[in-house]
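Is this the right way to post structure tokens for a design question? Let me know if I should format differently. Anyway, here goes:
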């Protein structure tokens, strides 16, 4: 199942950008809650002084139509005009830029469910002389959704081979989930470093 994630990023800007990212992300969360959507914080990087370098929401209980409306308004560069700057009161710069990125990601965890497993028996190997190849105690598991195949022909004990094969299959599925999660995080952080200034989709004024 695909989920929609929304990332607000201050890029590598100064603390004012991190503070603006905090203000804008709260405004976004409050706005979508008014239309009965649920923004769930799944990750963030706090600034050393205040605010967020980056914050990521997962939008729960939504439809494609609702996401398209929100996306058309928010996605892109947002200009924040500070009417008060608590960090550098005498600083001449008033305009700060925040990035808003939307991602449609299939983050479904792949679980080990025997209903998804095809079991085939095969001739085993290992100690046992000539008789060992006459006994189908070896096991081959196929995880149908992913096509991953695991086999175990270590012993003449079918139950033991099945147990080991299941453990190997679980390890392979865990690795697949970890790889998917790492790729998703990498996608977020690539966007974190690609903030564009100018061409803003909206302008927000406030105090930081």
């Amino acid at each position: 199942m695909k989920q929609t994630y929304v990332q607000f990023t201050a890029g590598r800007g100064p603390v004012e950008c991190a503070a603006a990212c905090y203000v804008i992300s709260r405004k976004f969360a409050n706005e979508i809650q008014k239309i009965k959507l649920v923004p769930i914080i799944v990750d963030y990087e706090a600034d050393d002084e205040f605010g967020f370098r980056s914050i990521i929401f997962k939008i729960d209980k939504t439809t494609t139509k609702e996401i398209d409306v929100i996306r058309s308004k928010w996605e892109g560069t947002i200009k924040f005009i500070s009417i008060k700057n608590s960090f550098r009161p005498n600083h001449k710069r008033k305009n700060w830029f925040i990035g808003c990125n939307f991602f449609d990601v299939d983050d479904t965890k792949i679980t080990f469910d025997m209903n998804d497993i095809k079991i085939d028996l095969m001739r085993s190997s290992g100690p046992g002389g000539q008789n060992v190849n006459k006994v189908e105690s070896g096991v081959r598991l196929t995880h149908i959704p992913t096509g991953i195949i695991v086999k175990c022909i270590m012993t003449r004990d079918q139950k033991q081979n099945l147990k080991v094969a299941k453990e190997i299959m679980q390890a392979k599925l865990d690795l697949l989930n970890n790889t998917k999660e790492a790729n998703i995080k990498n996608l977020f952080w690539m966007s974190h470093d690609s903030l564009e200034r100018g061409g803003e989709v909206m302008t927000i004024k406030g105090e930081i």
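Format looks fine. Someone answered above. Worth noting: The beta strands are 2-9, 38-46, 52-60, 76-84, 95-106, 117-122, 138-143, 148-152, 202-207. The longest strand covers residues 95-106.
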